[in-house]
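Predict the 3D structure for this chain.
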Amino acid sequence: MVKDDDGQIGVVAALVRSTFLVNAVYADSAREYGLTSQQGQLLCVLMAQPYGMSELGATLGLAKSSLTGLVDRTERNGLVERKPDPHDSRAVRVALTRRGSRLAKDFYVETCRRIERLTTGLAAAERDTLAGLLGRVVLDNKVPAVFREPDEGALADRKH
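Done. Predicted structure below.
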């Protein structure tokens, strides 16, 4: 690990290592809910609304064949369903089932709680600064909204 004289790591190493950290937390949470990380991402994206396959592929950054396999496996588990697209008879939209919606909400709340816990060593102002800076990086690079901001009330309810 390369450190500056003041004990800080550089921006590249910090971003890459934080990605590994968040991915590990996300994967652990998914595993505990009987999901793969990709299935967890799919459920979280679909919490907002059903998506067409091409929209979903673009949002998740998956090729058509990979997305089809992911949706097939998740559908076999009863978590998502394909519905006809009301605007295009040749297309389908992927939506959460009732079971998928319940699991998505539980998984989402627990995953948010775990990720939030990563910053417990920071003061509130430091967390705000971190969120602001990372938010700018995400927005400047047009990262799709694959994970929405947690509802504070839902997180508080889950903790009790």
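Strands lie at 51-52, 80-85, 88-96.
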